[in-house]
Each structure stands twice: as C-alpha cells, then as structure tokens.
Design goal:
This protein is about 30% helix and about 15% strand. It has about 550 residues and is an alpha/beta fold. Among the domains are: about 190 residues, 3-Layer(bba) Sandwich (FAD/NAD(P)-binding domain); about 55 residues, no CATH class; about 130 residues, no CATH class. The protein binds ligand NA7.
C-alpha cells in the first residue's frame, strides 16, 4: 500500500496517462492541445504498445492499413504512405514513432517506468502513483491506455523453466533477430497470433510442430503491396474511408450485407460467399448476410461452406478434420486471417499434434513430453494468449476512494459506466477499458471516439472548475446491465474466447464475463453523445 500523499518533492501533474500505445499517444496529443500538464508513463523502452511488443514473425494488421492510421491530421494522412494493404509490425511501429515525433510528443513520455500501484487520496482529490523503482508521482486525473491484450498468459504446464533451448511468449519476442533456419520449433496455441507465426515460419525452420487444443476458423487475408495508383486513390478518399468506418458496427470498412440469408437464392448465396472468401480482409467475417452471426442455422450453413474450404486446402483429410473447429460456429470467436496457413500443413516438415488426443504432460530440458512421446526442440513459442481486457488493470494495484481495490470490484467481471469510469474510482478514466466501444472495434477508430469524448469531459471539468468526477452506482449498474443485454444480439457469447473472458490459464476465468460492448460502434457513439447532451447524466462532479 502506498502511504498517504507525498511531499513537496513529488512531481505533480494535472493528468497522467499510463501507456504509450495507439491510445496513449492520441490521448496525450489531445490533452496537450488543451494546454494540460500531462505525462505518459510507459513500461517499455519506446512508444508503440502492442506494436512495440509483438515482434514475432508474421505479426501484421488484419485491418486495412489505411483504416488503422489516425484520422485526426490531414497532414499526417497525406504524408504517410502504407506499403501494403495489411502492414506488418515493423511498419506500424515506424508509423507510431513517426506520429510521436511529428507532434513532438516524446518529451512528454517517460519510458522504462512501470506503474506498480495507484492510490486515490480523497482529501487531496489526487492519484498517487508508485513506480516499480519506488519513485512516486501524483496527478489529478489518471487515464489508463494500457491495452486490451497486454498481459500475456503462459500455459500452466509443468517444467517450463527447465527447458534448455530458447523459449518465449510471442508478446516477448526478442528485439534482436532470432535464428530460425535449421531449428526444430514448437508452437503452442492456434489463435490469431499462432496462426500468423506458423504461416510465416513453416518454410523457414527445419521442423515445426504445432500443439493445438482448439482449432479456430481462419480465412485468407489476401494481402498485397499498394501500388502508386491505389495509393493516390486512398489518399484522395480518406474522408469516405473514415465515413464508411463510422457507419459499420466494428469501425472497419467491412460491414454486414443488408440482405438476410433466406432472401437470397442458393446459387447467388454461394457466389456471394465465394466472393467474400476471395476478398481481402475481414469481409469474410463481418461482411456476410446480416443474420450470419445472429441466427444459429444461417451460421451453420456458412460454417459448412468454410469447413469445405479447409478440406480443399489441406491434402491429408485426417489433418483437415483436426483443423476444423467442432465446438463453435464460424465467426463466433475472433477470426484469424492468414496467408497459406492451411497449406503449411501440407509440408513434410510441419506436424500437427492434437493435444486432446495426446495431452502435453510437461516441458522437459530438451522439448515437450506428450502422453505419446518426447518431442525434441531448439525453440518453443508460446502463442497462448492474454489475460484479456482486464488483465492489465489487475497487474496494477489500483485503490480507489475509501481504500477499495479495483481488482476486488472486478473480481467476477468488470462493472463500469460506459466502459470509461468506475464508481468509487474518481478521476480514473479507463480508456479502452472493458465494456467500452473500442474493445470490439478496429482499434484506432474506437479509441479516437473515447479519447475525444474523454478530452471533452476534461475540458468540461476545467471550464467549470470541477476537480472530481465519478459515475453514480445507478448509472454504472444500468450500463453493465445494458452491456449484458448486448450479448443477446449475436452468437459471440456462444463461444469460449477472450471476447467472453475465458482463459484456461487463469484461476476463475472459466465463466462468461461481460468484457465487451456488443452493441456496435454507432450505437456506442450515440450513447456517448446522449450523455453529453444530458449534461453528463450519470456522472457526479465536485
Ligand atoms: P488467443 O486468441 O487467446 O489464442 C490463444 C491460443 O493459445 C488458443 O489457441 C488457445 O487454445 C491456446 N492455448 C492457451 N492456453 C493453452 C494451453 N494451456 N495449452 C494449449 N493451448 C493453449 O490469443 P492470440 O494471441 O492468438 O490472439 C489474441 C488477439 O491478438 C487476437 O484476437 C487479435 O485480436 C490479436 P484454446 O483455443 O483456448 O483451446
């Protein structure tokens, strides 16, 4: 526990943002525009967040690059040239560094400082932050931009530390190059990350063994370079691109087809699905008939169509069946987009181990032991996912008004108002927090909304001389109830995934948690606007 405030030596700020990723960068920019004394604290040694950490081979966007960049500066849009329709991690990290330097944001950021604890002092109406090095800072406002997928989780497998070769979670992929040539490599996990890694390294390593628990429904990304003509067209149509993103539920350029499955004759239906499968990006997931992710039977039809695609792409029918999910319909979990993922299993040097048939018994000094045999490896890659959305909050000891811990309040799942504030935690703004509209969206599109909204909230407070804001418990309960209702709008909650708060590597994460706002970006935006129009209904100011 951090003792009561601070002496005169403790740096005091009006606002502190934790995290220098996509969200923290933009929030900093906006607050500086208002002349606010603000600092960003970042645990890593540079900006970029997700794109700083995830350096594993194959890491790239599943969103079209030109829908992912910030929309706030015409000059930035004009001067930045994306090289591919779906840019790789190095390019995105360069982009974010470019933004930081262009707007002179770096000098307001402190790197390599990990926030250990944050305590709200009721008397002073300020947050005190304790960093891992023991130093402290205080701030009137605390804004968290700590990422949705920034608390990686390792599997609970005996012997992990005994392994003598190289091994790491994909999130901690080293900055220096990792030699892959001639290596015997294991990948555990077949989510969006595992699928990208496997596809990328299959033809580079001597031998690749994939340990799969539950397969995912994957579909082709269809990435390609952006030629000059297309580049010019993109730059000339940014207004239309962002308008389109504003209209779709996920903030992508892809949105549901207006038609229902049953409205369309069978042959036309199939032609449409073929077209979706052959098109770049998430259209194959979210550009389908509008009942494809709502109606179980329609979903089953499409699921069958995609299963046949997998059968066509994988030579060995037995392996194909293992790669076809049986426990959930297409699109009810996050769909990994891939480049020759299924074809990787046609290679002689790639092996699939279904750990439901032959469970992993432990990691040995030389590899992995399953119930069947010992496998020897030089490198083990853990693509085993994250303590999603709330995990990064739990890793900071956050104490609100009256000594209440956020981790206790959220023990059985998050409770928030608009996904942006929590009763009992005044002046804490949980940007990209659970139950906010940004969790399920094309991230920059979602965070631009919440950052702009939060910036207006801060302006409102300054203009009126308020020093404290907090939601009412009633508003919070109503919002959380509304979030629960939105889970009935699609089939998403029928599958166990990070969207719904499941994680087998964490104690207690084996029931449904209401992590996401499932009502779509336009509806979320409307709600945010209504709150402002009603003079910040649901918030208490002092
Ligand atoms: P995900 O999507 O959570 O995937 C994690 C994968 O790791 C998934 O296949 C899991 O299998 C597997 N996993 C996790 N724990 C274990 C253990 N203990 N044993 C075997 N297999 C395990 O994380 P990603 O990093 O791939 O993707 C996260 C997001 O990043 C993604 O949605 C994008 O938005 C970007 P399971 O399915 O649980 O059986």
């Amino acid at each position: 526990m951090v003792p009561e405030l601070t002496d005169s030596q403790t740096p005091q700020h009006e606002a502190i943002i934790i995290g220098a990723g996509v969200c923290g960068i933009y929030q900093l920019y906006r607050l500086l525009q208002q002349g606010i004394d603000v600092r960003v604290l970042e645990a890593a040694n540079g900006p970029g967040g997700t794109w700083y950490h995830n350096r594993y081979p194959g890491a790239r966007f599943d969103s079209e690059s030109y829908t992912y960049g910030y929309s706030f500066s015409r000059e930035l849009l004009d001067e930045w040239t994306w090289s591919e329709h779906f840019a790789g991690q190095p390019e995105t990290l360069r982009y974010l560094n470019h933004v930081v330097d262009k707007f002179d944001l770096r000098r307001h950021m402190r790197f390599g400082c990990k926030v250990k604890a944050a305590v709200f002092d009721d008397a002073a109406c300020r947050w005190t932050l304790e960093l891992e090095d023991g130093s402290r800072l205080t701030s009137r406002l605390l804004l968290t931009a700590i990422g949705l997928l920034s608390a990686p989780t390792m599997p609970r497998i005996e012997g992990i530390d005994r392994f003598k070769g190289e091994s790491f979670h994909t999130y901690y992929w080293p900055q220096e190059p990792v030699a892959l040539e001639g290596k015997r490599v294991a990948v555990i996990g077949t989510g969006a990350t595992g699928v990208q890694v496997i596809s990328e390294i299959a033809d580079k390593v001597a031998d690749l063994t994939v340990f799969q628990r539950r397969p995912n429904w994957c579909a082709p990304l269809h990435n390609s370079p952006i030629d000059e003509q297309t580049q010019a067209r993109i730059k000339a149509s940014y207004d239309e691109i962002f308008d389109r993103c504003r209209q779709t539920p996920g903030g992508f350029i892809h949105g549901p087809d207006r038609r229902k499955f049953a409205d369309v004759p069978v042959r036309e239906r199939l032609a449409f699905w073929e077209q979706l499968y052959a098109s770049p990006g998430f259209g194959v997931w979210i550009g389908n008939f509008r009942d494809a992710l709502v109606d179980q039977q329609v979903n089953a039809e499409y699921t069958g169509f995609i299963a046949d695609k997998i059968r066509q792409r994988v030579d060995d029918p037995e392996i194909a069946e293992k790669l076809i999910p049986k426990d959930h319909g297409f699109g009810t979990r996050r769909v990994p987009l891939e480049t020759h993922y299924y074809e990787a299993y046609n290679r002689d040097n790639v092996h699939l181990v279904d750990i439901n048939e032959t469970p992993i018994e432990g990691v040995t000094p030389t590899g992995i032991r399953t119930s069947e045999r010992d496998h020897e490896f030089d490198l083990i890659i853990y693509a085993t996912g994250f303590d999603a959305v709330t995990g990064a909050f739990d890793r900071i000891d956050i104490t609100g008004s009256g000594g209440r811990k956020l981790s206790n309040k959220w023990h059985d799942g998050p409770i928030t108002y608009l996904g942006l504030q929590v009763a009992g935690f005044p002046n804490l703004i949980t940007l990209a927090g659970p139950q906010s509209g940004s969790v399920l969206s094309n991230f920059p599109r979602g965070i631009e909304e919440v950052v702009d909204w939060s910036t207006n909230l801060v302006r409102h407070m300054r203009e009126r001389g308020y020093s404290r804001v907090e939601p009412t418990r009633e508003a919070e309960e109503k919002w959380t109830q509304h979030v629960k209702e939105t889970y009935k709008l699609s089939l998403l909650p029928t599958a166990k995934s990070w969207f719904t708060g499941y994680n087998s590597n964490l104690e207690g994460h084996d029931t449904l948690r209401y992590m996401i706002y499932n009502g779509g970006a336009p509806r979320y935006r409307e709600r945010l606007a209504e709150v402002v129009d009603s003079n910040y209904e649901g918030f208490l100011f002092q």
